[in-house]
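User:
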Amino acid sequence: MKTKKLTTMAMLTAVSMIIFLVEAQIPLPVPVPGVKLGVANVITLFALWTLGAREAGAILLIRVVLGNIVAGSFSAMLFSLAGGGLCWVVMSLMKPLFSLRQLWVLSIFGALGHNAGQLAVAIGISGTVSVAVYAPVLVIAGIVTGCFTGKCAQLVLEHMEKLKR
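Assistant: Predicted structure:
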């Protein structure tokens, strides 16, 4: 791996860790457990678009593991790994279908995948499907947060393209 790419990955990992840790301290006024903006996903989208799926996955994995070691718990890590992993898979597979102008749509699909992964872990841990009652709220939250994080990443990438010209 080239030094520039490795350095970029390290920087993006550090930035995503900081965002993850700060966001973990901000409670959202939503009565459903686990709902948050997912601002660190802006970095995942940025990495996916500029570096590739494998590199974005590595950044995501390091952020989730280290972030939960520092400020989370083992169960929080399970939720983060399942949600983040499914989000990454969905976005990596669907990326060829979208242009930069549609990055916010790709992000919505990723957020929905994230919520599905977390819901699957919740069902697995609780041993009951009744936690699926949160699914409608999680779908709405996924659409809203996915749109927000996707639009943020899209604006950053569009601005970077203008700087290159």
